[in-house]
Amino acid sequence: MSTAREKLVRTTIELVRRYGIAGVGVSEIVTESKVARRSLYINFPAGKADLVTEATRQAGSDTTAVVQSIMSADRPVRAFVEVWKGLVYSSDFEGGCVIAAAAISRREAPEAAAEASRAYISWTHVLAERLEQVEGLDHDDALGCATTVVAGLEGALLMARAAKTTEPLDAVTAQLERLIDAQSPKAEPRE
After folding, report:
1. pTM for the whole thing?
2. What is the number of alpha carbons within 13 Å of residue 74 lying toward its C-beta?
3. 130-158 tens-digit pLDDT
């Protein structure tokens, strides 16, 4: 059974994923979570700012776990994109990335934006480690390539939502895989 805090965080993640931080209010969070307003302020004394920060932290942690779980895949970038595609399909292209929403909301939620930065750094380091260990890239190239992958996929996700098609995700994935292969001394031709 979920606690009031857990319900508030999960509801906030889902609402921010769809509407962004500015597009979600306390009343909507309370209504959707079916938790009393009083519980929100007991668990998050600074209100929405605290809640959004915790939701961003949790979403970042959840996504980092997904990224880590797919690093053993032959094509981890493609595997991660399949996760994103499932999200956008299941939400009729309304669902996006909580981390991106927090990153662009520094004015309203500066601590959430800081959490977004930490999440991006985490994802980048997980992928960079994979690129070093499996693909044979040196540390600097692996880090640069991983940064390009994270940035490219986040941009492609935004484009996919806007156009209501996963074509940008597929196109960017193909180019990112070519980039990795071009830098990898261990690369074998891919289909």
Report:
1. 0.93
2. 5
3. 999 999 999 999 999 999 999 999 999 99
